[in-house]
Design brief:
The complex is a heterodimer of chains A (79) and B (334).
Chain A (H helix, E strand, L loop, with lengths): L1 E5 L4 H17 L4 E5 L2 H6 L7 E4 L2 E5 L5 H11 L1
Parallel strand pairs in A: 1-2
Antiparallel strand pairs in A: 1-3, 3-4
Helix pairs in contact in A: 1-3
Chain B lengths: L1 H17 L1 H11 L7 H31 L4 H8 L6 H12 L7 H10 L4 H13 L2 H11 L1 H24 L8 H4 L15 H36 L6 H4 L6 H9 L6 H13 L4 H13 L2 H7 L5 H25 L1
Classes of the chains: A alpha+beta (79), B mainly alpha (334).
C-alpha cells in the first residue's frame, strides 16, 4: 500500500506519519510511507488544510492528525 | 453511547464549576496561612482562578470543536468564492472565528482560496482574523478580565481583519502573488459534505479538547501564577509611566515589540495579565496582543513562498496601521 502524508513539516504532520507507521507495524501491514513537503505538490492534490493523507493516489483525509480508528479502517479496507 | 457520555460530562462540568469557589476557600483554610493575609488572598485567587479558567476553556473548546466540524475550510471557501468585496470581507473575518485553523496550514489555505476565485482582499480578511480572533483568545480574556475586554477584543480584531483585507483588495495587488501561484489551474469551490454524524462531531469536540487544552494549560497556569505573585511585589502603577494612557508612543512601541514575538493566544496571556495588573493602558495591551498573534516573522517567511516582498510589506503595513488605530482609539475613549 502506498501512503503519502502531505504537510509542510509541522508537528502534526510528523505525528501523523509516526501514528500511521505505528498502526501499520502493529497490524503487520506493509506500507510505503512517503512525506510530501513541497507546496506545489501538496496543492496538486487539492488539499487546503494539512496534514493530508493520500492512499494509493486518493486523498482520504485533510486537516489535523487522523484518529487511530480511522487509520485502522484505511489499512484494513485496502490491504 | 457517545451522546450519553457527553450529557454526563456536561452535568459533571456544571456541578464542578459551581463548587469551585467554596472548594478553593476550603483548600486555603487547610493551609497554615492566614486567609486575610496577602499570601492567603493570592493563594485563594490562584486556586479559584486556575480551575475556573481551565474549565471554561475545556467547555468552550469542546463546543467549538463540534461547531468547527460544520465549518471546514472547504465549506468556508465555497461560501466565499466568487463574492464581491465588502460584504465578503465581513463574512470572511467572521468565518475566521469558527473555521478550524492551524498556522501551518496558512499557505495551502491561502492558495486554495485564491485558486477557487476568492478575491485576494477577502482571503486576507480570513487569514488575519482566523489566528487572531479565536475561541482560545476570547475565552481566556473572558475568564481573566471579564466579558467587556473579551467583546472589545473580538469587535476590534474583526474590524482590523475586515478593514485591512478590504484595503489590500482596493490596492489591486494580484500581480504580487508569486508567478507559480497565479499560474496554477483554477479549481472550483465545489464542496461535498462527507456525511459527518453527530457522534463524529462529539468525537471532534473531545479531540479538540485533548489537542488544544493539552497544549495551552501551562501558559494559563503561568499567567495566573504571575498574576497572583506580582500583585504585591510590583508597585501598582509601575507601568503607568511608560505604558499608561499618557505615553502615546507606547502603542507603536507595543506593536513593534510584538512583531518578532511569535506565540499563540495562550502564550501572550501571562504577559497581558502582568501588564494590565500594573497599570498599562488597555488599548496598548490589546494592540500588543494583536501584534504578537497577527504579525509574526515566521509567518512572513512562510508567506514569502507565495507572495512577493511588496505584497508582504503591504500586508504588514496595513495590519500594523489597523492595530495602531485600535490602540489609540481605545486609549482615547476609555
Amino acid at each position: 500500500m502506498d501512503i503519502k502524508v502531505l504537510g509542510t513539516g509541522c508537528a502534526n504532520c510528523k505525528n501523523t506519519i509516526a501514528l500511521i507507521d505505528q498502526v501499520a507495524k502493529a497490524r503487520g501491514v506493509s506500507v510505503t510511507l512517503e512525506k510530501v513537503e513541497e507546496l506545489r505538490a501538496i496543492m496538486g492534490y487539492g488539499v487546503m488544510s494539512t496534514p493530508g493523507v493520500v492512499i494509493n493516489g486518493k486523498v482520504v483525509h485533510a486537516g489535523g492528525v487522523p484518529s487511530r480508528d480511522k487509520i485502522e479502517q484505511w489499512l484494513t479496507a485496502t490491504a | 453511547m457517545l451522546y450519553v457520555s457527553w450529557c454526563r460530562t456536561r452535568v459533571a462540568w456544571l456541578a464542578l464549576y459551581q463548587a469551585l469557589a467554596p472548594a478553593s476557600e476550603a483548600l486555603v483554610a487547610t493551609l497554615p496561612v492566614d486567609r486575610a493575609s496577602h499570601l492567603g488572598g493570592a493563594l485563594q485567587f490562584f486556586f479559584y482562578d486556575t480551575p475556573k479558567v481551565l474549565m471554561l476553556l475545556t467547555g468552550v473548546v469542546f463546543v467549538m470543536g463540534m461547531i468547527n466540524s460544520y465549518f471546514t475550510p472547504e465549506r468556508t471557501r465555497a461560501l466565499l468564492a466568487g463574492r464581491t468585496e465588502g460584504v465578503a470581507n465581513v463574512m470572511a473575518a467572521s468565518l475566521g472565528i469558527v473555521t478550524p485553523f492551524c498556522s501551518c496550514s496558512a499557505v495551502p489555505l491561502f492558495i486554495g482560496f485564491v485558486q477557487a476565485g476568492v478575491p485576494l482582499g477577502v482571503t486576507f480578511s480570513f487569514l488575519i482574523s482566523a489566528p487572531m480572533v479565536n475561541e482560545v483568545a476570547l475565552t481566556l480574556l473572558f475568564g481573566m478580565f471579564g466579558w467587556k475586554v473579551a467583546l472589545l477584543y473580538m469587535g476590534l480584531g474583526l474590524s482590523v481583519a475586515i478593514l485591512a483585507g478590504w484595503t489590500i483588495g482596493r490596492l489591486k495587488m494580484e500581480a504580487y502573488l508569486e508567478d507559480w501561484v497565479r499560474d496554477m489551474p483554477k479549481t472550483s469551490a465545489q464542496f461535498e459534505d462527507a456525511g459527518v454524524t453527530l457522534a463524529d462531531r462529539v468525537q471532534g469536540g473531545f479531540a479538540a479538547v485533548r489537542e488544544i487544552v493539552g497544549k495551552v494549560w501551562p501558559y494559563i497556569l503561568g499567567g495566573i501564577a504571575l498574576g497572583a505573585l506580582i500583585h504585591g511585589y510590583v508597585p501598582e502603577d509601575f507601568m503607568v509611566s511608560f505604558m499608561g494612557k499618557d505615553a502615546w508612543w507606547s502603542v507603536p512601541l507595543a506593536v513593534i515589540i510584538g512583531v518578532p514575538m511569535y506565540t499563540n493566544a495562550a502564550g501572550v496571556i501571562p504577559i497581558v495579565q502582568a501588564l494590565l495588573a500594573k497599570g498599562a493602558a488597555l488599548g496598548t495591551v490589546l494592540a500588543f496582543m494583536m501584534s504578537v498573534i497577527a504579525l509574526s516573522l515566521p509567518e512572513m517567511i512562510i508567506l514569502r513562498k507565495v507572495l512577493k516582498i511588496r505584497l508582504i510589506a503591504t500586508f504588514v503595513a496595513v495590519v500594523a496601521t489597523g492595530i495602531l488605530l485600535v490602540g489609540f482609539v481605545f486609549n482615547a475613549v476609555l
